[in-house]
Amino acid sequence: MTFVADCMLGRLAKWLKILGFDVLYFSKAEDKDLVELARREGRVLLTRDTGLIEKTVKRPNRLFVRSDVWEDQVVQVLDEFELWGEVRPNTRCIECNLPLKPLSRDRARNLVTPHVRENASSFAVCSGCDRVFWQGTHYGDMERKIERLIERRGKTITG
Ligand SMILES: [Zn+2]
Fold this sequence. Notes:
Number of domains: 2
Shape: globular
Bound molecules: zinc ion
């Protein structure tokens, strides 16, 4: 399942990408262009808008996002489409929205600092921007946030 998020949902789009999902997002776009893009590429439209989008795109091709808080928004999307089992953190470039490709330790050697080279458990590279990503050097803010999200599985706040 792939998505396009409306202009009000930048943080939701970013976090869905961090969790591995394919999400298009533009900080400026006309509603009609988003509707057209969603139709053309078969993407689900995520929206906070109650105007054009809600009138022209019907469920399940559109989801009205209820909360203004990004954590609630992520939980709602994953609950609604039952996507928790497909969460794969850090497998997609949040800039390019492209899947990362595994990179051997050998090939990563000259692309990262010695500290990262010694301590990372795995490496990956984006084929769009050539940025190198790695896992396992620290337990950081992002990992904590991902864990907190996963604990909220099935607990969408309704109403
Ligand atoms: Zn990239």
